[in-house]
């Protein structure tokens, strides 16, 4: 009999535990929120354009062939513009990648060899990120820009980011909703 009573009480007990756990579960940290974003941003499709001097190629990020250089406006030197080869879409065989306005990211957005924390901070820094001031502005580009979207349709068997673009946007929104904390930032108490 005693045994049966105990069993009867079990669901209530479990529910109680779950509620207690939910109450205590701390707000996600910058580390937890930014990690999935970093795993996309630090992939070769993104980093190959977010370089200092010249774009990179392939998954291992070797320097671009044909001595392609950034040039004054991030779109190549006068004699060798990106647009000479890169069109508004991938070439038919996919070998030459393409998307509208194909060019390198500005120097201030060169993430090559930056740590996760530094990438996170510079993404939010208006002096580096193209004067984007709010978290909504910071993530908008990654939600809609054709150069970003290209990474999910890169052609010629190139690897794609580690999660779908839809999932990436969800991670960006969760990060922005928490105010865009970076790894190591103090955790704000969860809003009640
Ligand atoms: C073909 C080159 C190219 C590729 C590929 C590319 N970018 Fe960019 N990126 C740019 C250019 C050019 C800009 C500047 C445009 C602007 O500021 O509006 C930029 C700007 C950005 C910015 C805004 C700057 C900031 O610090 O907030 C973010 C964020 C960004 N890119 C993320 C990505 C991500 C994520 C990927 C990969 C999924 C990616 N980019 C792939 C060229 C590229
Ligand atoms: C002479 C033609 C040519 C010019 C000019 C050129 N590219 Fe490329 N680019 C290519 C070809 C071809 C590939 C594909 C290489 C491969 O994957 O084997 C490529 C690949 C790339 C990639 C690698 C994409 C990836 O992640 O795999 C980036 C980034 C890139 N180019 C950026 C640029 C930028 C920015 C410019 C101008 C500053 C430029 N390219 C100028 C022909 C060119």
**What class do helices, strands and sheet pairing give?**
mainly alpha
Order of helices and strands: HHHEEEEHHHH
Number of helices: 7
Low-pLDDT segments: none
Describe the structure.
It comes from Collimonas rhizosphaerae. InterPro entries: Multihaem_cyt_sf. Keywords: Signal. With 192 residues, this protein is mainly alpha-helical. The chain has one domain. The protein is built from 7 helices and 4 strands; from the N terminus they run αααββββαααα. The strands form 2 sheets. Strands 1-2 form a two-stranded antiparallel ribbon. Strand 3 and strand 4 form a beta hairpin. Helix 2 runs antiparallel to helix 7. The mean pLDDT is 90. Bound molecules: heme C (HEC) (2 copies). One heme C (HEC) binds next to helix 3. The site of one heme C has 24 residues, from helix 2, helix 3, helix 4, helix 5 and helix 6.
Give a short synopsis of this structure.
The chain has 192 residues and is mostly helical. Helices cover 40% and strands 4% of the residues.
Helix and strand topology:
Blueprint: H1 2-24, H2 30-41, H3 44-47, E1 56-57, E2 62-63, E3 76-77, E4 80-81, H4 116-124, H5 135-144, H6 146-150, H7 165-177
Antiparallel strand pairs: 1-2, 3-4
One heme C (HEC) binds near residues 95 and 158.
Looking at this protein, list some descriptive labels.
Multihaem_cyt_sf, single chain, signal, binds heme C, mainly alpha, 192 residues, Cytochrome c domain-containing protein
């Amino acid at each position: 009999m005693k045994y049966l009573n105990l069993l009867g009480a079990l669901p209530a007990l479990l529910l109680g535990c779950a509620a207690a756990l939910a109450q205590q579960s701390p707000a996600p940290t910058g580390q937890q929120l930014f990690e999935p974003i970093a795993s996309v941003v630090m992939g070769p499709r993104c980093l190959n354009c977010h370089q200092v001097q010249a774009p990179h190629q392939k998954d291992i990020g070797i320097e671009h062939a044909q001595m392609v250089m950034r040039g004054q406006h991030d779109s190549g030197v006068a004699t060798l513009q990106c647009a000479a080869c890169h069109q508004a879409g991938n070439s038919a065989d996919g070998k030459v990648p393409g998307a509208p306005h194909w060019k390198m990211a500005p120097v201030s957005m060169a993430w090559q060899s930056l740590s996760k924390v530094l990438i996170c901070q510079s993404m939010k820094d208006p002096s580096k990120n193209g004067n984007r001031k709010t978290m909504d502005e910071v993530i908008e580009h990654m939600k809609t820009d054709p150069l970003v979207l290209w990474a999910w349709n890169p052609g010629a068997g190139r690897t794609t980011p580690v999660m779908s673009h839809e999932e990436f946007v969800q991670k960006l929104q969760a990060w922005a909703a928490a105010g865009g904390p970076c790894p190591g930032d103090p955790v704000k108490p969860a809003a009640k």
